[in-house]
UniProtKB/TrEMBL annotation:
InterPro entries: Class_I_gatase-like, Peptidase_C26, PuuD-like. SUPFAM superfamilies: Class I glutamine amidotransferase-like. GO terms for molecular function: gamma-glutamyl-gamma-aminobutyrate hydrolase activity; glycosyltransferase activity. This is Glutamine amidotransferase. Coiled coil: none annotated. GO terms for cellular component: cytosol. One of its GO terms (biological process) is polyamine catabolic process. It comes from Lederbergia lenta. It comes from the Bacteria. Pfam families: Peptidase_C26. Keywords: Glutamine amidotransferase, Glycosyltransferase, Transferase.
Length: 238
């Protein structure tokens, strides 16, 4: 029997586990994709050839959260507040983005994932919110990942607004970096009260990125679950 559910490639993180460099991925990501109607597969560290092959096997790509993006990828030098970086993984993930665009696949980026999309499309990053944003909120909540942290304001002319039907929404927050200048064909569709960009969409509707974490919020907020369902539905058309 032919499977009709779309295959979604999930990027992962690099961490030391029992003194070994390991690929890690919070369970919430694949579980949320399964709940939304997709089949998750994990994409490890790769190269040009592997990225092209992996993307061709998938109907859509979800770039997940994790370490800071190294500033060398957007023409900057490290500041003292920069966190842990994994430049080789950055390069691998950006190759996945490159081939997803070439193959016209739908892409969703969450937290670090949204940062990678932005940088891959020529955008920049603020290496640390506290030192780069005047009167900034505390965006780095180290507690319960489902905890609501602050409000965002949503642009009416956006996919996100069409879904939630609200101009304001309370979201969770686990980041100290923020989006700077947006990359080619991306537009900001949600901001925090301090001006930090919280979500973007591409002009062609094939890319969505959120600073907040719908894979966690979807556990109790049906609209956030529906955001991932929408992503899965878009992937079905590939």
């Amino acid at each position: 029997m032919k499977n009709t559910k779309p295959i979604i490639g999930l990027t992962c993180n690099l961490e030391m586990v029992r003194n070994n460099v390991s690929f890690t991925l919070y369970l919430s990501y694949p579980e949320a994709i399964k709940k939304a109607g997709g089949i998750p597969i994990v994409l490890p560290l790769g190269n040009e050839e592997l990225a092209e092959t992996w993307v061709s096997m998938c109907d859509g790509i979800l770039l997940t959260g994790g370490n800071d993006v190294h500033p060398k990828h957007y023409g900057d030098v490290p500041q003292s507040e920069l966190g842990l970086t994994t430049p080789k993984l950055d390069e691998s993930d950006m190759l996945i983005i490159k081939h997803a665009r070439k193959q016209n696949k739908t892409i969703f980026g969450i937290c670090r994932g949204s940062h990678l999309i932005n940088v891959a499309l020529g955008g920049t990053m603020l290496q640390d919110i506290e030192t780069n944003v005047q009167n900034s909120l505390n965006h780095l909540d180290k507690g319960d990942r489902t905890k609501l942290k602050h409000m965002i304001t949503i642009e009416k002319e956006s996919i996100l607004y069409d879904l939630v039907q609200k101009e304001e929404l309370e979201v969770n927050s686990f980041h100290h970096q923020a989006l700077g200048d947006l990359g080619k064909d991306l537009r900001c569709v949600a901001t925090a009260p301090d001006g930090v960009k919280e979500a973007f969409e591409s002009e062609d509707g094939k890319i969505m990125g959120t600073q907040f974490h719908p894979e966690e919020l979807g556990k109790f907020n049906n609209k956030m679950h529906e955001l991932l369902v929408l992503f899965i539905e878009k992937c079905k058309g590939e």
